Amino acid sequence: xxxxxxxxxxxxxxxxxxxxxxxxxxxxxxxxxxxxxxxxxxxxxxxxxxxxxxxxxxxxxxxxxxxxxxxxxxxxxxxxxxxxxxxxxxxxxxxxxxxxxxxxxxxxxxxxxxxxx
Length: 117
Fold this sequence. Notes:
Blueprint lengths: L4 E8 L5 H13 L6 E8 L12 H12 L3 E5 H6 L12 E3 L2 H10 L3 E3 L2
Parallel strand pairs: 1-2, 1-5, 2-3, 3-4
Helix pairs in contact: 1-2
């Protein structure tokens, strides 16, 4: 019997929504029951990518811990380019996608549940 994997896709489209998005992602992972497999991906675009440069220590630590706990964070390359942020300047735990809108579409097509806090 194939084990169900619960997959959550969180979309951060505004820089003010990082804290609630990370908290939601952490709470989802913490809610796992014994033997349950959960996956969480955060995709950020628009002005939310500015927080990778203007990030306070508490948010930085929460983002890093989320990734250490098994989550993934991807930033939109189109948005990074629009704000003049180099991919090379990103923290090592942050990934990128060429276009957030296409990544959001693909994840949902593959059965991920979409949430935009």
